[in-house]
Amino acid sequence: MAQTIAISGDTRARRAPAAARHSTRSASPRGWNILALAVGVLFLVPFIWLVVTAFTKNGTLAVSFSGGLTTGNFSGLFAANSASEAIGEGVGGALLNSLYLSGGTMVITTVIAVLTAYPLSRFNIPGRNVLVYAIVFVTGLPIIAVIIPTYDIFVSLNFVNSLWWTVLFLTATSLPFAVWIGKNFIDSVPLELEEAASTDGAGTWRTLRHITAPLCVPGLLVIAIYTFIQSWSNFFVPFILLQTPKLPASVTIYQFFGEHTINYSGLCAFALIFTAVPVVLYVLLSKRTGGVSMFSGAVKG
Amino acid sequence: MSVAPTELVIETGPSNPAAANPRPRGARPTRRRQRARMVTTAVMMTPFAVLLGGLLGWPIVWTFVLSLTNEELTGPTALHHQFIGLSNFNQLFADPNFGASLVHTLQYLVGSAYIGQVVFGFVLALLFRQCSRTVQAIVGGIIILSWVVPELIAGFMWYALLGQGGVLQQAAHAIGLPYSQILVTHPMAAVNLANTWRGVAFSMMLFTAALAAFPTDLLEAAQVDGAGSVKRTLFVVLPNLKGTFLIDIVLVTLATLNDFVLIFTMTGGGPGEESQVLSTYMYQLGFTEYRIAYATAVSVVLLIIGVVLSAFYVRALRKS
Question: How far is A174 from chain B, CA to nearest CA, in Å?
Answer without folding.
Answer: 10
